[in-house]
Each structure stands twice: as C-alpha cells, then as structure tokens.
Design a protein that fits this description.
This protein is mainly beta and 482 residues long. It has helices spanning 3-24, 107-110, 315-319, 355-361, 468-472; strands at residues 36-37, 44-57, 60-67, 75-79, 84-90, 98-101, 125-130, 136-142, 159-165, 175-184, 187-189, 220-222, 225-228, 239-241, 246-253, 260-264, 269-274, 277-278, 284-285, 287-290, 295-301, 307-311, 323-328, 365-374, 383-386, 393-396, 401-408, 414-418, 423-428, 431-438, 440-443, 448-454, 461-465, 476-481. Bound molecules: copper (II) ion.
C-alpha cells in the first residue's frame, strides 16, 4: 500500500464518520468523547478486530488494528454484577487475545495465552462470558505477544476503556470524560529520550547494585507520535466547559512503551480512584503519573476561566501530540500551558497511614521478586529475569495472604501488573501505606515496593511488566495455584 492509498483510505473513513455524525450530533465530537457500547437487553456485546485508520491530524493518518472500526475502541459501559457475553470476531490473519484488565474473572476468559485462554482464531470468532464484580475504571486490550514485531499486541490500536457502573453511583459531576494516553508508530532505538530526569532526585534507590552492569544496552522501543484518544494536541475539537463545573476524567495510560505524566495549566486534579478503586484520601495534585496500564479517575473544578492545555509536561512529547485543549465558554484566547511546579508522584498521599496494613502483614507470607536486566548490546534485545531467570513459575496456595516484595535492580521504572487479582500497596521505597487497592504498581528504578493480596482466585494468573517488550523478553512470572 502506498501513501496515496493510505490517504484515500483515511479520507474514506473520515467521510463515513462525518456522515454518521450528521445523524448523531450537530457538531463534531470533542477530543474527550468517544463512541459508547453497552450490552443489549440480553447482555450481549459485539467486538470486531480489524484494520482501521486513525486520523491523529489532517496530515497524520495512520493504519493499525482496532476494535469496531476505531482506535481506541468504543468505551464499553457495563453494570456491576450483571453478566456480559462479548462476541469477538477476528478479521485479521493472526490469533488474538482480548484481555479484560482489572477484572476478577477466570483464566478461560481473561484473554491471556500464558493462562491458556483459547485465542480468537484468525478469520474466526470467540465468545467471552463473564460477570464484572468490581465497579470503576477498567480497560480492554490485546494480550498477544509481539516479540520483535512492532505491529502486534499492545503496539496496535487494540485498546479501549471499560467503565463498570457501580450498583450505587455516588458520582457528583457535570461532565464525564475518558482520556487514553497513547503513542503510535513505535520504532527501535539505541538512544533513549531519558525520562528519568523527571524522577525524584532524592529517591532512596534501595536496590541500586554496588557494582553496576556496564554492558552496552540493547534496543529500546520509542515513538515520536502521540495522542490523547485518537487526536493529536490541537487537531480535535476542544473539551468545552463552563465555569463552576466539576469534570470527572478517567485517564488510562494505554501506552505499550512508556509511563506518562499529565497536568493542566491553572487547575488541579482531585484524585478519587486509582485503577478504578476509590482512594481513602482524595488529595488534589498538579501532576498525575500513570505507569503503562494504570488508570486514574480525577475531578477537576473549573474555576479558572480561559483556554488551557491539558497534556504531558515534557514539551517534546506534548508538542508531538500528547495533549488536549480545554476551552471555557466565551473564551477565545490562545491556549495556555503552565508547567507544573513538581513532577514527583507519591502514591502514599492517597492512602491511609500504615496501621491496617501492618495487621494484614502479620499473616502474609513474603515472596521476594528480584528484577534484573541483561543488556542485549548493539542490535539485540535486552532480556529480563525474575529471581534469576526469565518468566519463572511461582506456586501459591488458595486462602493464603501473600506479600510480594519487588526489588527493581534495573535502571528503569517498571509498571507491574498481576492478572485476576487486586493487591494492596503496603510499601514504596520504605514508606508504608494502606488502603490503596490496585492491579498495577510502578516500582521506581533501583527502587523497592511491596504489595499484598489474598490468593482467592484459583487458576493461572500472569504477573508482568506492562511494557510490552519487557514482558515479551522475560519480565513476567506465572502464578500457579498448588
Ligand atoms: Cu518494564
């Protein structure tokens, strides 16, 4: 396919969408809005995996694989404790897995090869039937292995938000937005943009080895094309607000390659949920940090009229697309960007003091998990080890409470995710906390963190770094119930 064909395709898709909008909406949808998908009266949902085009901006149209003709896919809105049947059709030539991230569901429908979920066959279909028992912000995405192929798995546009409506909805807000943070068209590089400059220079680094491995680093994956949802900064319609409104934003970091920050000039985010679960302390912060796979729900009080940019604080990334304009009614100025006063992220400000965690810990059995990187050298991939070998198995016993102590002996922050379970963050770099129930936690470089969970979901459960390439090259472990 040449560039002209691509552009033609893009125009066609655009035409089709515009025609649909004339029926649905009198004006173009804002960058923060997206199609919603709810189950039919019988609890059914149809999901189609197929090639799609994404128009990030009029002159930046790319081709990828998506769900139901778009990337991100539709926002799937479910109801807590109501069974759903998802009929997935795969219009591509490769087996696919649709993973339901943050759900307590059996391995047969979790959508993970390592857990022996059957694939959605090429040109075939498969049904996922489950009951969402946890309310809040979850998401769905491909869980196919990519290995060296940057056109597979989470590198594609196969991702979307799921919001599980709680049985009782305490939300008090005037607008609800779903914003997915993304990068596109990944490529290999030996020269990383070093994002560590944004990390806390005074972090304790308890796992920093005495002697550093100075072998030359292998290939890393990076990108220079970014968006929020399917639009680059400035290319979509702005998010339109009025003074006095409370806007609820559900952020998802849907990147396959990087952790991300986001802030909004002149405003603060009051964090109400992490990974979909309400936090004990709703602290307001200037800047959010989301590891790949993490979600944050935050309320923004619209109390500073103007036209503002909400985006990634790193100029290079924001200017390359990772942002959206927020426009108050009757304001027509140039969009304003203000750098946040701090980029430091501290999970514990949203938690409770550690007393209740200590009570649980007395009964918890510790499992140490040591993460190391074996540098690949020029033109090769790095590999990762967990307790000395890539992708080990770990045996657990039903009913037992476990403490996982993550020892990150690498020079990178890794977003660690456990499938089919929720864990409580109890310690980050020596700082205890409690009440933060999550499914993904970022362990700082050379840092240490501890989480606790009760083994109450029998069946294979995959643990892994949510950076696709790290996972594919060893940064994972399979938890097997004895
Ligand atoms: Cu990683």
């Amino acid at each position: 396919m040449n560039r002209r064909d691509l552009l033609k395709l893009g125009t066609l898709a655009l035409g089709a969408r515009a025609a649909g909008q004339m029926v649905m909406l009198p004006t173009a949808p804002a960058q923060g809005s997206s199609t919603e998908l709810t189950p039919s009266a019988t609890g059914d949902i149809n999901l189609r995996i197929s090639p799609v085009t994404v128009e990030l901006a009029p002159d930046r149209i790319l081709s990828t694989i998506g769900y139901n003709g778009t990337a991100p896919g539709p926002i799937i809105r479910l109801k807590q404790n109501q069974p759903v049947t998802v009929h997935v059709t795969n219009d591509t030539d490769t087996p696919e897995f649709v993973h339901w991230h943050g759900f307590l569901i059996p391995p047969e429908v979790d959508g993970v090869e390592e857990e022996q979920t059957p694939p959605v066959p090429p040109r075939g279909s498969r049904t996922y039937k489950y009951t969402p028992t946890l309310a809040g912000s979850r998401w769905y995405h491909s869980h196919a292995m990519a290995m060296g192929d940057l056109h597979k798995g989470t590198f594609t546009g196969q991702f979307g938000c799921v919001y599980v409506e709680p049985a009782h909805n305490p939300g008090a807000y005037d607008q609800e937005l779903f914003l997915t943070l993304r990068d596109w068209e990944p490529f290999y590089t030996t020269q990383m943009v070093d994002m560590d400059e944004n990390d806390d220079p005074n972090a304790p680094q308890p796992e920093k080895p005495q002697v550093l491995n100075t072998a030359p680093n292998g290939l890393e994956v990076t990108s220079t094309t970014y968006s929020i949802n399917d639009k680059a900064l400035g290319a979509g319609e702005p998010i339109r607000v009025r003074e006095g409104q409370r806007i609820l934003i559900h952020f998802v970091n849907a990147s396959a390659i990087e952790n991300r920050r986001v802030s909004m000039g002149g405003h603060k985010f009051q964090v109400i949920a992490l990974d979909g679960n309400p936090v004990p302390n709703r602290a307001a912060v200037e800047c959010l940090f989301l590891g790949a796979g993490e979600r944050i729900c935050a309320i923004v009080e619209m109390n500073n009229p103007g036209v503002w940019i909400l985006g990634e604080p790193t100029d290079l990334i924001r200017n390359a697309g990772l942002g959206v304009i927020v426009e108050y009614a009757d304001q027509h100025k140039q969009p304003q960007w203000i750098k946040p006063s701090t980029l430091i992220w501290d999970y514990t400000q949203f938690g409770r003091p550690a007393a209740s965690a200590a009570q649980n810990s007395a009964a918890a059995q510790n499992i140490d998990m040591v993460f190391e990187k074996i540098p690949g050298g020029p033109h090769k991939f790095n590999t990762f080890t967990v307790n000395g070998k890539p992708s080990p198995e770990i045996t657990i016993h039903e009913g037992q409470r476990y403490r996982l102590t993550f020892r990150n002996r690498t020079d990178d922050a890794h977003p660690l995710h456990l499938h089919r379970h929720q864990w409580e963050l109890v310690d980050i770099n020596g700082k205890p906390t409690s009440g933060l129930i999550k499914d993904t936690v970022v362990v700082p470089f050379y840092g240490r963190a501890a989480v606790e969970f009760t083994a109450n979901q029998p069946g294979l459960s995959l643990f892994h770094c949510h950076i696709q390439m790290h996972m594919d090259y060893g940064f994972k472990a399979l938890f097997r119930y004895a």
